[in-house]
Write a structure and sequence with these properties.
- This protein is mainly alpha-helical.
- The chain has helices spanning 7-22, 31-39, 52-64, 85-88, 93-105, 110-116, 126-137, 182-209; strands spanning 29-30, 68-71, 80-83, 145-147, 159-161.
- The protein contains 8 helices and 5 strands.
- The strands form 2 sheets. Strands 1-3-2 form a 3-stranded antiparallel sheet. Strands 4-5 form a two-stranded antiparallel ribbon.
């Protein structure tokens, strides 16, 4: 790959892959469906709260990297979005399933990947999962996966994708964060101020009652 992905792009791309494989009848995805796919509470780590602008910006970045496409034209009432990473990197169904899980859930062990990819691709066993991961580790010129050093207190090593660059145990990738919406922050602050004013009114009313 020519350029690295940020955390939001990784989540958006992973969500498109998942829906394309698990529910092909609903793919490609509209913007609203893609936002919901990114923000769903199941099969996601961490859970995020992206808005349409977050996802639009990520899609724009993915299109520039030729990892996503937007479909428009005759017969398409609303623009729809699909992933192109499988074509760009020539990934088979096994590799795509593993990459998808690493993208939407972060670093995982072979056992976790074996159980969680079942809805996307049925591996024959842990050995097949490990063999596929090793193939992506040895991929040239750009490896797609890295095996992380086993951390103290854990029995197994975890694997992580390299779409966002090198991964270290000490500094895990930042979780996807939605855009800071200053208007939402202002509304929250105004709400707190209103509450404070109401409290002051109540306290003043109680104080006056003492002299009536």
């Amino acid at each position: 790959m020519d350029s690295l992905l940020d955390a939001v792009e990784v989540r958006v791309l992973g969500a498109m892959i998942e829906k394309e494989i698990a529910t092909p009848e609903y793919s490609p995805l509209t913007l609203n469906a893609l936002v919901n796919a990114c923000n769903q509470k199941s099969n996601r780590d961490p859970v995020v709260e992206f808005d349409e602008e977050d996802v639009e910006q990520a899609l724009d970045g993915l299109r520039k990297k030729k990892l996503a496409a937007t479909l428009t034209g005759a017969g398409i009432r609303v623009p729809k979005h699909r992933q192109l990473i499988s074509e760009c990197l020539n990934l088979g169904r096994r590799e795509l399933a593993l990459m998808c899980e690493l993208m939407v859930r972060g670093p995982q062990t072979v056992g976790e990947l074996h159980s969680r990819t079942e809805r996307l691709h049925r591996f024959d066993g842990l050995e097949e999962v490990e063999s596929c991961l090793q193939h992506m580790i040895e991929r040239q010129p750009d490896p797609l996966v890295v095996k992380l050093p086993r951390q103290p207190g854990t029995k197994e090593s975890r694997y992580a994708h390299l779409l966002s660059g090198e991964v270290s145990v000490e500094a895990q990738p930042e979780p996807p964060r939605p855009r800071q919406d200053r208007f939402a922050a202002m509304e929250a602050e105004i709400s707190l101020l209103r509450r404070d004013v109401e409290d002051l009114k109540r306290q003043w009313a109680e104080f006056r009652k003492q002299f009536e």
